[in-house]
Amino acid sequence: MGTSPQRARQPGFDIVVNSAGNSTWRGDDLLLGAESGWVEARTSCDHLSSLSSDLLHIPTPHTPCNRCHHPSENWLCLCCKDVLCSRFVNKHMLQHFQQSNHSVALSYSDLSVWCFVCEAYLDAQVIPQLRSVHEIAYILKFGQAPPVRTVEFPKVEDNQADDTLGS
Ligand SMILES: [Zn+2]
Ligand SMILES: [Zn+2]
Ligand SMILES: [Zn+2]
């Protein structure tokens, strides 16, 4: 726990959730982040209304770019499920956003979610509309479910059985 792959490039990752359910970032980490070049992940985004209604079935992380067939590290458009290459290859995901206004995409290289309108990463484990597709992409890429933030595996049945026997 605590060393999940998608957080590897976010040293000092530390969310503080306030009573309104919004996450803020500790000042020290914001400073560190500015220096090391990473940006904070937003916990809300106003551009999720165009998300695909079926994000339970998505292309595998090994799908090549639909335009230039670049083989890896592509982006999945979460609005139409097109797989397109990054701005460091042939910018096909960026062009897709400019042409279609589909702004939310998931990176198959590190499973981060980017909104082109917010120009920010979105925290897919906090935003409800993104949680399941992030989890599915994680399973497709790593073959196992991502580490959960709230553990919900009740393992009390055995203890209860013992109690009943003893009394
Ligand atoms: Zn947005
Ligand atoms: Zn491409
Ligand atoms: Zn799209």
TrEMBL record:
Domain of life, per lineage: Eukaryota
Keyword Zinc-finger listed: yes
Pfam family, one: zf-UBP
Domain UBP-type: 43-144
SMART domains registered for this protein in UniProt: ZnF_UBP
GO molecular function terms noted in the UniProt entry: zinc ion binding
Gene3D superfamilies in UniProt: Zinc/RING finger domain, C3HC4 (zinc finger) (3.30.40.10)
InterPro entries (alphabetical): Znf_RING/FYVE/PHD, Znf_UBP
Keyword set includes Metal-binding: yes
PANTHER family: HISTONE DEACETYLASE-LIKE PROTEIN (PTHR47665:SF1)
Protein name in the entry: UBP-type domain-containing protein
Organism of origin: Acer saccharum
Taxonomic path: Eukaryota, Viridiplantae, Streptophyta, Embryophyta, Tracheophyta
